[in-house]
Specification:
Structural class: alpha/beta
Number of helices: 10
Strand order of the largest sheet: 2-6-1-7-8
Shape: globular
Order of helices and strands: EHEHHEEEHHHEHEHHEH
Helix content: 40-55%
Radius of gyration: 17 Å
Distance between the termini: 14 Å
Strand content: 5-15%
Length: 222
Amino acid sequence: MIVAIDGPAGAGKSSISRRLAERLGFAFLDTGAMYRAVALAALRRGLTERDGEQIARLASELTIEFDGTHTLLNGEDVSRAIRASEVAAAVHFAADNVAVRRQLVELQRKIAAGRDTVTEGRDQGTVAFPDAECKVFLTASRHERARRRYEELIGRGEPAHFDEVLKQIDDRDRRDAERPVGALTKAPDAVEVFTDHMTLEEVVDRLEQIVREKTEKCTTEK
């Protein structure tokens, strides 16, 4: 079973999806980490968004793996490095690159093949897994998403200003909507969950309920 969770930046998809996967006993696929890993590799090579062909070629040479908790780039644990502000600001180097998205979507399908998986991103229910049995669109207001991102940065000891974080959220929303492939859209059959004023555990509870209801329905139909 594939549980596809999509939503905008700062909606809490990664932490919520990971916790949901633990509850369900499913594998967890953080596709955002994959794009961040490519962006990190590009930054280390001194590449910019103008170097699209080079970034696509670089992506094809990388080995990106997950051990359930950590993101490994060519065997190196980059779980913390890919969450840095510099990488967040550059993730569109990979996310807006058509060739890179094509490569990573193929990798996502290979990783999830034959396994019960909770996968999160921007295009999981629309592009990567359009036939997923359960789809969720996880979202929150722009100010709430900026607040969460700001607190995350402060918690990691990174300098941050709320207004700048809010601007980054707005810029990311615009890029996600305008992306030529894999644009952020809610799948017609996705259940929308608005998470303002909800704790992480309350959101996970709601998503678990949605998944179990979908599982029961699929079982009954079979």
